[in-house]
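A protein record pairs a chain with a discrete description of its three-dimensional fold. The following entry can be read in just this way.
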Amino acid sequence: VATSAFAGELGVSGSASINMEHTNGGAANKGKTFSMGNSVVFSGSGELDNGMTVSLSFELDQGDDETDVSGATAPFDGHSVTISSDSLGTLKFSGEGGKSSTAAIDTSAAGDLWDNYDDEEMEPTETGTSDNMFMYTLPAMVDGISANVSYEPTGSGTESAIQYGITYSGIDGLSVSYATGDDSTPVGDVGSASVFKASYAYGPVTIAYSDFEYDTTGTSSDDDMEGAKITYTVSDELSVSYATEEVKTGTKLTAEYKEMAVDYTTGGMTLSASMGEVNDRDGTTAAIEDQERWYLGASFAF
């Protein structure tokens, strides 16, 4: 089959960051760390004669720990192809790093504070971050409402999974999202998840809340994560926020997180500073699991 060439656009975007953080929670957990993150995203798109748009995106990430078929560390992170039109909606196929309907919004309203303290034992179960995943977003039918459905194929010893999501943003400053569905868990141990997330901005103040629940056939692997955050925008450049988060895994105690943060943006650079603390980080009452943390960071977008 022969066809004429179609013109398209290729764009490159990236980011880099320099971070310093200090954790204080007993001799085994004390320490300062310095880190640098960087990645570059290549994206291209073009419109076909039938009015459909085809887009391609892939990311080069030095910190990516994925491996290729030879077992060597691969330079590629998430990559996907998207086909869309106003009348048919959007179909996205993710070869790597796809997100299901729940995974797309399951970040806590507080910003996943648990991830700052490096405790995998109390890490909420993410449902639907998969390779070879489909996400279909319905075309706009009602102003302020969008809906999607995701599909994870059957894997080695795992069931396929379908999830559904909906977002309402028909009121100025308000956004409410809900998603639910099954996880591609091992056969005989079916898991399901549901996420509720809402935010409302009134003048310089934004209030956000989220609730995530993950259930399996037993209770030892169930997860719950609740988060809230209030942000005050002082100016276009400066904002301050206060966030709280609670994470519970199985029958362990609830880990409680708090954080105060300040962000200042100028041009393409953002300077960040925060102070936070956690109680019962690993779900126990051990004194070493009550920790404090402060953070300084600079990120650059180009």
